[in-house]
Amino acid sequence: MHELEPSDHPSELLASNEAGSRASQAAADALYLVEATSNESAKANESAVKAAFDGIISVDEQQRIVLINPAALRMFGCSAQEVIGCDLARFIPVEYRARHAEHFRNYAKHPQPDRAMSQRGDLFAVRANGERFPVSVTISHSHGANDLGFPRMLSTALVRDLSVEQDLRAELAGMKLQFRRLFELAPVAMLITEDDTIVFANRSCLALLGAKRPEQILGRPVFELLHRDSHAVLKQQMQRALRVPSGSLCMMSEQITRLDGELRKVEIAIATLPGAHKSTIQMVLSDITQQEQASQELHHSRHELRRLSASLIDAREEERRRIARELHDELGQRLSALKMELADVGEELHGRAIQLRMHGMLAMLDETVASVRRIATDLRPLMLDDLGLNAAIEWLAREYARRMDIEITVRLDEEEPQMEPRMATALYRMVQEALTNVARHARATDVQIELRVEGKELALTIQDNGIGFPISAKRKENSFGLLGMRERALLLQGQMLTDNPPGGGGRIRIRLPLPPQLSKQQLLAQQQKAFDQELHHMQASQIIGPDSP
Length: 549
Description:
- By secondary structure, the chain is an alpha+beta fold.
- It has helices at residues 10-51, 70-76, 80-83, 94-109, 163-185, 203-209, 231-243, 289-348, 352-379, 382-386, 389-404, 421-442, 481-491, 520-540; strands at residues 55-59, 65-68, 114-116, 123-126, 132-145, 151-161, 189-194, 197-201, 250-257, 263-272, 280-287, 407-412, 446-454, 457-464, 495-499, 507-513.
- Strands 1, 2, 3, 4, 5 and 6 form a six-stranded antiparallel sheet that branches. A five-stranded antiparallel sheet has the order 8-7-11-10-9, with helices on both faces.
- Helix 12 links the parallel strand 12 and strand 13.
């Protein structure tokens, strides 16, 4: 209390009293603000404690529970009325209580701001129903006041339930084990690399590489497995796999070198391993050595069969040409000579009956000569060799139009392109087969034939207004017409397509590459060679003598 002094002036005392009053008021205001702030902080802390997901438990020096949040109540399966004021030991298994009491005494002697009671998964707690579960506990030190206002030390524990996490860890470990077994027992070769180094290889991969133990493969650069000519390609595909989205495959076919030095052809699927390190790559290796050999053998066999087919076709065309020449020249001439002889004999004979018989024999000879010429033409039209492809196609169109009583229009280039006799024969036979197919199946009344030179290719189109091609035309058994046309086109390095155009009917389109244009000298030499072959054939058939001009 402020006491009065003799020297104090009344006005000074008044001022002093006023100043004291203002100071007291300021102190009171400050205390009010502190209390208000403390209340607000307490409310905020209380809200945070209630909203926390982890359990929060505060105990006094006797380890009696003075505070517990809702998360802890849910964790232990009890209510606040049941645990407030109770010993913390009710939540600790019996075998751990002595050790816990020792930890608590040590902590009380040497308090630390925050201290973990044990490593994760090493500590257990007990729920109200007696169930044990793993927890992690972190203790912090704080001060509070009792009911009488005296200070006391509080220990607050942050408790986290690890049962769910432990179950998830166990499930994850089991899945990892199953995943590894799946990789290990997979029937296809698999390996995993990190930074281009092999870190895993399953049994099928070891067998493919000729290894008896994983140590022979693990830790080696993956490039050592491949033939040196394939290193650059593999590196490029691995870098591409790291750039593309996860799960995308990069495929390659290369040779690998087994540990015994044997080369094997493999197909490799490369992809990043989901959820792994950025540089982790998985590879699936499929041994395609036998398939590759079988494919090569099949390709070689097809090539040989096509060569054989070409040889048979050429031999058949040559035989047709020979037979047609013999029928037309030799047999035709002999029949004509026989007709002349019969005519001469008939003039010397008299009598109506004999003359009738002679006329019948002459008519039969005329029919025989016509049949021989028709057969010879069907075998091989001589005008194809004598007048060229355009003339042969026009004659063929007229003959079929007359036989089938339909309209056939032919559009050809004015100048016939230079081509080998083999190509001209193939085109003629394809037109002939197409018209035969129209006559048998199409039920058409109009046919368009077009032969044009388009760039470096020769385009042949045969289109009709009939019923069109059925969907199964290419796969129809015992139907070799279209198949023969397609094979002829393939033998000449071309292609054939069949379709039904929008306007109706059927259409066959054939495109063949044209051979390089021959020079005038080469063309004359080719014609001279053909003339010499024909002359030799006629001499061999005794149509003309060797000394004939």
